[in-house]
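Revision sheet: structure tokens.
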Amino acid sequence: MSGPEQSSSPSSSNDIMPLLAGLPRADLPTGEPLILASGSPRRAQLLTAAGYQFTIEVASDEAECGVCSRETAPQLVARYAYRKAAEVVARHHEGLVLAADTVASCMGQILGKPRDVDHAESMLRMLSGRPHDVYTGICIWSARDEKCIVEAVRTQLEMAPLSEAMLEQYLDSMLWEGKAGAFGYQDGNDWLQVVAEGSESNVVGLPMERLAELLEIFAEKAETVNIDTNRSDSG
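Predicted:
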């Protein structure tokens, strides 16, 4: 588990992913400092590019364990986001914790992060030439007010048929590591297309448009939660 760290400057992240330009930003609703409960560099880049100030505290791997019987992709990512946020909230008396989890879904199968290159190849062969969905669960939780809001956001994608050469080149690049569905929309591949003006940032790992909306309605829509846990004195 890593300790808190400051976000990077917006200018440096814009050089990495052109889609970061023009992302929406909303004021934080509770006045608490924003804490990103994720070690994903892509989520940090998105927040930084939008102009948010935040620290990072990574939830443990246990927050992402277990798949419930007949659980759908949106239910799974919402549950994982909630568990990640709850773990980080438990360390603080104050802080607006933001947690997220992303998976791909194709032909009824939930595709998380690949275990190895063979697993990545099987995922990409399934997705090749087929429409599929990317879901990100997002949880915003006020440690001080003990209120949270949880939602799953869907983006439809279409993947062009992958030739053996395209598949081999991408697998050799290792860019698939740590990415749901074994692909990264931000990797510059021209074989991925968002359908019906869906959220590109959602595919990357954090739906920035919906995040801004949820922050704006947080005071009205967030629900009170009771978390029976021992908070750390340092929070």
